[in-house]
Specification:
By secondary structure, this protein is mainly beta. The chain has helices at residues 3-13, 404-414, 437-447, 455-460, and strands at 17-18, 46-51, 55-60, 65-69, 84-89, 96-101, 105-110, 115-119, 134-139, 146-151, 155-160, 165-169, 184-189, 196-201, 205-210, 215-219, 234-239, 246-251, 255-260, 265-269, 284-289, 296-302, 305-310, 315-319, 334-339, 346-351, 355-360, 365-369, 380-387. The longest helix is centred in the N-terminal third of the chain and has 11 residues, at 3-13.
Length: 462
């Protein structure tokens, strides 16, 4: 991933985690222990993800919206309050563009710029003015110029295409930034300036970047999470330092992490679980650089931990791992960034409070950590593949069925004969990591009803 591409994507990735769909390839070492295929939700790849404390949302390339996990307040948007432990599509709309999950509510933007919300609403966090929970998406107002969203614990913050900043919901810790502590049940503009570029909000504080690269923060500041050198709450946005080279910011429970345009990583706020990554457990009241590396591409902070991706596609985590949310196969707290595995194909990640989800370059959605409400699909403390996209093993020509033609395509491929466009990721039905004549034999046996499942399918489910 080039540095120029990173600079283009960073402002977008601050609030929606996006990965462009690409052609899949076989990668058997991406399957960790207890891996299962929950459901094949996408033929085009997952392009946007958001993890909250107990539920998860995803958007696929065709614009459909999918969800799973806790649904006590209707935050899954499926018309019920029933928890889901496998991804379920929400409605039939195929025009969803971005999504953000709060503690018990979800907000999303469609491709036409309209704003939608569902879930808990007792503090006005949905923004529909009612204070009533919604178990299906409802449009918030009639405006169609919404550009970015970030859902907090009981509040929401958003940007419009004109660069204006808006907030609504709970405001007991000044997290809306309007100069009061009054709740707002509908979107309220914060100030009059229209030069906001990106926004991230957590439980009770928010941090934003302006078009000039300057950093601003407001809300609760009891552990220095605003980064202004104090522990004083801010009721309106306050500039943090004088630097104007901030590119990405992400807000956790009581800490903040950010990346500058030079690729350096910075963090501040609470550090009781090592979530800042500076090797100690002392709170920081101003931004401190984490290590000397300058190849950080993306960061996501939530709860008491942080996850980041470097420009080489490697995945790094640190902080609390009491539920295995770091993904290193343990529940050990890490005080400095620790690399997860050896793969270099991570492109997007979203930290929940105690679980994590991420997208790889093959379009697969991975998850690990806490799973008490089905927010993963299976219990494990290492990354698991929960959604296998594009790969229907044995279907090389992507026609939806497995026939002798698929076996013939393998033979043509192995003999360097023209095949046309084929999905090689579907060819390794034996699961041995390579494409051989044996895979063609297995397909023929499957077509003749001699085997029900391919060996690779059995491996994915064990």
């Amino acid at each position: 991933m080039s540095r120029s591409l990173i600079k283009v994507l960073l402002p977008i990735l601050c609030f929606t985690y996006i990965a462009a769909p690409i052609t899949l390839y076989a990668e058997t070492d991406s399957i960790k222990r207890n891996a299962i295929e929950v459901v094949n939700i996408s033929q085009d790849g997952v392009i946007a993800i958001s993890a909250s404390e107990h539920h998860t949302m995803a958007i696929k390339a065709d614009g459909s919206l999918w969800t799973f996990g806790n649904n006590a307040r209707g935050q899954l948007g499926d018309g019920t309050t029933t928890d889901r432990n496998t991804p379920m599509r929400i409605g039939t709309a195929s025009d969803w563009a971005s999504v953000s999950t709060g503690n018990s509510h979800t907000i999303a933007i469609k491709t036409d710029g309209s704003l939608w919300a569902f879930g808990g609403n007792y503090r006005g966090q949905l923004g529909d003015g009612s204070g009533t929970d919604r178990n299906m998406p409802v449009q918030i107002g009639a405006a169609k110029d919404w550009a970015a969203i970030s859902a907090g614990y009981y509040h929401s913050i958003a940007l419009k295409t004109d660069g204006s900043l808006w907030a609504w919901g709970n405001n007991n810790n000044d997290q809306l930034g309007d100069g009061t502590t009054s709740n707002h049940a509908s979107p309220t503009q914060i100030g009059t300036v229209k030069d906001w570029r990106s926004i991230s909000t957590g439980d009770n504080h928010a941090v934003a970047i302006k078009a000039d690269g300057s950093l601003w923060a407001w809300g609760l500041n009891d552990t220095g999470q605003l980064g202004d050198g104090t522990t004083t709450n801010r009721r309106t946005p306050a500039q943090i330092g004088f630097a104007k080279d901030w590119a990405v910011v992400s807000v956790g429970y009581r800490h903040t992490a950010a990346i500058k345009t030079d690729g350096s990583l910075w963090a501040w706020g609470s550090n009781d679980s090592g979530q800042l990554g500076d090797g100690i457990m002392t709170d920081r009241y101003i931004p401190v650089q984490i290590g000397s590396a300058k190849n950080w591409a993306f960061v996501s902070a939530k709860g008491f931990y942080t996850i980041a991706i470097k420009t080489d596609g490697s995945l790094w985590t640190w902080g609390s791992s009491d539920y295995g949310q770091l993904g290193d196969g343990s529940t050990i707290t890490r005080h400095i960034p620790v690399r997860i595995g050896t793969a270099n194909n991570w492109v997007a990640v979203s930290a929940g409070f105690s679980h994590s989800i991420a997208i790889r370059t093959d379009g697969n959605l991975m998850a690990w950590g806490r799973n008490d409400y089905g927010q993963l699909g299976n219990d494990t403390d290492s990354p698991i593949q929960i959604i296998s996209v594009l790969i229907k093993y044995g279907d090389l020509n992507n026609d939806g069925i497995i026939t002798y033609l698929d076996a013939t395509l393998i033979l043509q491929y192995l003999n360097n004969l023209p095949t046309g466009v084929i999905n090689l990721a579907a060819a390794d039905v034996s699961g041995d990591g390579e494409i051989t004549y044996y895979d063609a034999v297995l397909i023929v046996r499957h077509v003749n009803g001699l085997i029900e499942k391919f060996p690779i399918e059995t491996k994915l489910r064990n």
